[in-house]
Amino acid sequence: LKTRAKDSTLDNRIFYLATPPSIFLDVAGAVGRKAQSTPGSNRVVIEKPFGRDAETSKTLGIGLGRIFSENQIYRIDHYLGKELVLNLMVLRFGNLIFEPIWNRNCVSSVQVIWKEEIGIEGRGGYFDQYGLIRDVMQNHLLQMLALVAMEPPVSNSQEDIRDEKVKVLRSVEPLREEDLVIGQYKGTHKKGVTQCSYLEEKGVAKDSRTETFAAAVLQINNRRWDGVPFLLKCGKAMDEQKAEIRVQFNAVPGHLFGRQQKTWPRNELVIRIQPNEGIHLRIMNKVPGLQMHTEPTNLDLLYKSQFQAQAIPDAYERLILDVIHGDKSLFIRDDELEAAWNIFTPALHMLDKNHSKPKLYSFGSRGPPEAEYLAAKYGVQWSEDEA
């Protein structure tokens, strides 16, 4: 590197700001004044959270804009670098079979699910200031929703892709408090193993109302998705570790086999982000034999078996490479961030105003039962436990 630097007339620099939000602008200001390169390019990578709500995000953006131009700023969300998230556009727009059914006429609901088995793992000082809506739902889950719901971009260029994401996010109605359930894990003692509650974690206030679980229903007010509920769920200290997208299709109208079975499972497309990356399409199929017996069956694409020779790159590895190349396709634009905060800010303010207490759930469980009631209100059942 030293040899290449001597031979180069340019001094390109990348600054990665993984700093506490409270000192973010101070650090960025020092970098802008003292560390920028004059003969080369300067790029700054910013880790979430980008503020606490729409107002603080705007303030942060104005302050950052005084130091760096928008072209220099890379707001990173590592989920956008995950292989199955990257494949969403190819799956949707590179295959003829999905586009005709990818709308309100055929889709009954979409679920975006993120679960971790662990608690906050020593991050109490940070996490207790923000909670899981700001830490996961407003960014990771909403970015996946945007890729599922967006219209086809004009081209593969970074601005055309981000234009479509902004358009669909602006079509999402602000989250209502009645369409939101928050929870907080409590301690358990099972089989000789004790798990502490969130309130017992180091750095967490003893009377904290910070959520470690959130379930929400969003509505997209446009021609493609009007009336289709988008259910988001994320939680820590859950029963399993998983991130996936589930597109559930409408029931078969007037189907021939309803008399043989009281309930007829719906077709469902499952995009497993992690672990065990894969794509699964659930269809109904006749079981071999002399009787007309049917059961749901999966058409499976498992990455570990299909692509044995190809290693799946780490999300950060891919995104840092994009920063080096100056490709911002997988990074969040300022107007995209504004649209995302506009969705969640009203509900977040209502939670603070009403001093809403999170529902308690046991460490290692599915979360509070109120999340099931929320889904049922829209005629949906969380289906992440199915194949």
Describe, in short, the structure shown.
This protein has 387 residues and is an alpha/beta fold.
Please name the defining characteristics of this protein.
14 strands, alpha/beta, 9-stranded mixed sheet, single chain, 32% helix
Model description:
With 387 residues, this protein is α/β, with parallel strands linked by helices. Helices cover 32% and strands 22% of the residues. The chain contains 10 helices and 14 strands. A 9-stranded mixed sheet has the order 13-12-11-10-4-9-8-5-14, sandwiched between helices. Strands 1-2-3 form a 3-stranded parallel sheet, with helices on one face. A two-stranded antiparallel sheet has the order 6-7. It is globular. It starts with a helix and ends in a 10-residue tail after the last helix.
The helix/strand class is alpha/beta
Q: What is the arithmetic mean of pLDDT?
A: 89
Quote the beta fraction: 15-25%
Total strands: the figure is 14
Alpha-carbon Rg, integer: 23 Å
Draw up the topology in text.
Layout: H1 2-7, E1 13-17, H2 24-35, E2 42-46, H3 54-65, E3 73-75, H4 83-93, E4 107-115, H5 124-149, H6 158-171, E5 180-186, E6 188-190, E7 193-195, E8 213-219, E9 229-235, E10 242-249, E11 268-274, E12 278-286, E13 294-302, H7 303-306, H8 315-325, H9 334-353, E14 359-362, H10 370-377
Helix pairs in contact: 3-9, 5-6, 5-9, 6-9
